[in-house]
Write the structure tokens for this entry.
Amino acid sequence: MDFASTEPALELAGALAIGLGTSIPMPERPQDTERLARFENFRFGHDASRIGWAVGEGPTVLLVHGYSGRGVQMAAIAETLAAQGFRAVFFDAGGHGNSRNEKIGFFTFIEDTRAIAAHLGGEIHAMIGHSAGGLAMMRARDIHGVRASRYVVIAAPFFPYVPLETMQGRGATEEALGYVKAILADQFRTSWSALVAGAAYKPEPGTPLLAIYDRDDDRVRHADADRLQVLWPGTITVKTEGFGHNRVLQAPETLAAIGDFMRQ
């Protein structure tokens, strides 16, 4: 082993990992505060460190936001579901929004999905996840046995390539990225090769999956929807245009597709 070259790569990988463990806070706008005030709120998780909201009555639908996001991003979907006779539940993951400020990772969303499912108890009709939250939510099925009768992923990467591409764009070496891949694989409790092959989306025969992606998303490739169609037989795909990575959550096409999917 060439220790002279490996040591700098390890140091760089460590610095990159620190970046993975933090989020850029998304501010809560006055209209967000007003909107959330109309919903039931509750605390869950270790030391009641997480805050969640619920709206509507009926079968439970769990919604998971993405990295550096916050639960209120899912409010438009939650309100649409509530109007259709569902109880929609969303939350601020650890290190995000109004939940406890702490180090984060993909493991945060995996563990918080488990924690809120345990808090809610009973059957979950559907799980809906955005971006990294969707990827981690789907992996929580195998790690923690958190299951639903149907799933929706919105702009969720097929595997965690987004942080790697960001690091690469900032000059990270392939050697350093190799160490980061190992860190990411450990968070998902599998190997990197398994993640790349779609381990997080292990199909559940007979269980419907809806995949919604925007063609103008500059973070997550809309072609990931096509990969999901191959991996998970019967996947329904919807591709919007002009909304990008976050605004796709409020797109009329997104709300209509989820509404139709829930009525099937």
Remarks:
- DSSP finds ten helices and eight strands in the chain.
- The first helix runs from residue 3 to 20.
- The two ends are 57 Å apart (CA to CA).
- The CA atoms of residues 15 and 176 lie 10 Å apart.
